Amino acid sequence: MHESRSTRGRVSRALAGLALAACASAAAAQAAAAGQAPSLGQAFEAAWARQPEAQALPARRDAALARQRASRAWSPEAPALELAARTDRLNDNLGTQELEVGVAMPLWLPGERARSEALAQAESDAVDSLALGARLRVAADVREAWWGWHRARIEAEVASLQLDNARRIAADVARRVGAGELARADRHQADGAVAAAESGLAQARASASTALQRLRAVTGLALRPADAGDAAPEPLPERAAPQAAEHGALRELADRAEVADRTAALAATQRRANPELLLAATRERDAFGEPHRQSITLGVRIPFGAGPRADARIAAARAEALAARARLALERERLLAEREAAGARVDSARMQLAAAERRLELARESRGFFEKSFRLGETDLPTRLRIEAEAAEAERQAARARVELAAAISALRQVLGLLPQ
């Protein structure tokens, strides 16, 4: 009774989670349709709702519950009805007649019922962990596409700012060339800088469009370039939480290994076909005029062992169990290594952002100094263009460093088995 309540509780929680995911997906779609920027969490839920694993999850739970009910039944298979009739009407026609009606009931092998119930429970537990593992894989795809889009978007925004500044400088140079303060060669240099900025902007917008299309394909949302919102990072998790044993990918593999172990244990008990209990009633007579006699037949059918066929089935089940345990060990080691790498990446991204912001501050001050000196004729145009290019690069580096820090935090959460928020 306790196991039944526990199973119902897990199913209720899982169904509630699926309903919340569907609501989040609908909210993301409505936000995109209304021109609002969806969050990373909404984009993930929209992507998950489209996955075959999400759509098949209720049916998988129903199948798991059905297997549990079957493992608790009195018989491993459904009973069979047997009907037989004997007569000599086509031969001597002396009135011989026999009618037999029986039921054949398959019987559990020793230990088979308990191991079948254990396997059904393991398969039921594995349903939710398999779904969680699938959600983590979808989360990895969404995170990669999401931050790839923000990187490309930042590049396009910085390229647009660079073009605006190049045009502003070119306009100032054109005015001063007309006034005779600068040579025509300076105007050519300024116009060349504008052309280079236009080319860079076109390339950046093409990359941003490609990244946006990929995100659309992953999430199914009708996103537009204006739906980017901000690249706010996810909450920074503790490095030690959650515990490695609670990681969704490890839980999935552990449950797979448990199912494989239980399958091997069940195969070890099924070395022969199930015996059958036969209960039949017979009504017969030997000739015309004689009374009918009735009898009851009680029998047992015991098959011989399957021999090499059973050995092959058991060996295959044990091999699968060993492979599942090996995959679990390898995945645990991989996640521990990736956790260390992801933590180092976050620390590095923080230092890079601090350096980029310091460089940006200095570049902006230098741009102000040289812009003033250029207007006063104290600085030549090549120097002015070089300072402007350095300032634009500092803007790009700082903006990209912010995205890289957010992406590094997101990658750390992914390694820790945390879903997007």
TrEMBL record:
Coiled-coil parts of chain: 318-411
MF GO annotations: efflux transmembrane transporter activity; porin activity
Signal peptide bounds: 1-33
UniProt keyword Signal, yes or no: yes
Keyword Signal among UniProt keywords: yes
Subcellular localization, as worded in the UniProt entry: Cell outer membrane
Superkingdom of the source species: Bacteria
Any GO CC annotation of this UniProt entry: cell outer membrane
Keywords for the protein's UniProt record, in alphabetical order: Cell outer membrane, Coiled coil, Membrane, Signal, Transmembrane, Transmembrane beta strand, Transport
Location (main, coarse): membrane
Region listing for Disordered, in residue ranges: 227-247
InterPro entries hit by this protein: OMP_efflux, TolC-like
Family listed: Belongs to the outer membrane factor (OMF) (TC 1.B.17) family.
Protein name according to UniProt: TolC family protein
Organism from which the protein derives: Zeimonas arvi
